[in-house]
Specification:
The protein has 431 residues and is of the alpha+beta class. It has 4 domains: 92 residues, 3-Layer(aba) Sandwich (Rossmann fold), CATH 3.40.50.20; 59 residues, Dna Ligase, domain 1 (2-Layer Sandwich), CATH 3.30.1490; 128 residues, D-amino Acid Aminotransferase, Chain A, domain 1, CATH 3.30.470.20; 97 residues, Phosphoribosylglycinamide synthetase, C-terminal domain (Glycinamide Ribonucleotide Synthetase, Chain A, domain 4, Alpha-Beta Complex). It is 30% helix and 26% strand. The protein has 13 helices and 23 strands. A 5-stranded parallel beta sheet has the order 3-2-1-4-5, with helices on both faces. A 5-stranded antiparallel beta sheet has the order 12-15-18-23-20. It has a 4-stranded antiparallel beta sheet with strand order 6-9-7-8, sandwiched between helices. Strand 10 and strand 11 form a beta hairpin. The protein is globular and about 60 Å long. The termini are far apart. Bound molecules: adenosine monophosphate and glycine.
Amino acid sequence: MKVLVIGGGGREHALVWKIKQSSMVNEIFCAPGNAGIAEIAQCFPVKAEDIPGQVELAKRVGANLVVVGPEVPLAEGIVDICQAEGIKAFGPTKKAALIESDKAFAKGLMDKARIPTAKFSTFENPDKAKIVLKCLEKEDFPRVIKASGLCAGKGSIMVKDKEEALATVDKIMRDRIFGEAGDTIVLEEYLEGDEVSLLVFTDGKDFVFLLPSQDHKPVFNDDEGPNTGGMGAYAPVPFLSDKDIGKIIDKVHAPAIHYLRKMGIEYKGVLYAGLIITEKDPKVLEFNCRFGDPETQPIFMLLETDLMEPLLASIEGNLKNISLKWKPGYATCVILASGGYPGKYEKGKEITGLDKVTDAVVFHAGIRKEGDKWLTNGGRVLGVTGVGKDLETSVDSTYREVDKIKFEGVHNRLDIGVHGLTYLMFHQSLI
Ligand code: AMP
Ligand code: GLY
């Protein structure tokens, strides 16, 4: 088969890396890809958001399957267009992708399908939002204010008090820091607990789960600083058993997909629930209609099954015949970011040490090549991903490899995996 992967980040590098291992695949293409992906697949300079360009490319290379990485082409209906052209495409249709692209829609769905989530209100008018905020008491904070549209993971702002909340409404709705994505906002209760990403493959009827993972969204150690697209992730999380996962799917993923079906929308692809495991129960923070970045990197390092099997079964409605096999142990991915990210950063810094990495896979994201030189070309540059028989070994060996890679301004979190390690310290028998 010939497969075209759409996108050009670390997640797409992991998709290409894993799909290339399939005995079903003899050619693999990526658009736009990046310099790292170009080492293992033929890349084409077509932007992920250029839907006609991507569909034309799929036809030109004779792709039998298109796998869509990022949310924007999904939200713009690339799967519907591929279907209309007779090209198999993995991912939800435009209407189904609303579960990610419109947070107000997603919260409404959770409400109607009785999916546990943070209490919320949505506002299209900043003055109305401010009237509600002014009525809140000191103990009603912190809260979270979210732009309803797509913001590359950066559209949620935690506010500590009323003043900050009022200023944030102005920043999103009047200064329009997130553009039209902030025309509607969601005001949410702040949830306390461990965060987990639980993704399932679904063909609209059945579900097969991927290992639960934990992303690290804020830019600095100890979850300080602004949110990023994700600074690192590990899998599996030690605090969810398969039984817990089954219960979550019954309460979260299954009702979401059934409710969409009631609305006449069939959801096929991967459904990502971002959850907080609160003291009482797991609650949904958000749904995404695609694989996570960087969660995909450690998850695929542990996936033994040929990825083409669940990808095709999700499209063809055969998921009940699929079970995924996982390698034992843990995987950890640490993101190396450009100085200044998630704010302004410079590009074009030379990266050294990639050839010294022996004990991890380095998934490339914001990177380009000039001759033999690797240069930074984005905010999240690399995802160094190592495995180990236990979480501690996977974290330690990954950081050993991280230390070999240098570029001016590079920064990474030093505490990827710490929540899992702390849990294990208190819950594992020490005998
Ligand atoms: P989102 O934009 O919804 O993907 O949220 C980005 C990140 O903000 C999440 O991954 C959480 O770390 C944090 N976050 C969002 N909503 C809440 C909430 N209600 N309570 C606590 N943290 C939240
Ligand atoms: N890692 C967060 C996301 O993919 O949305």
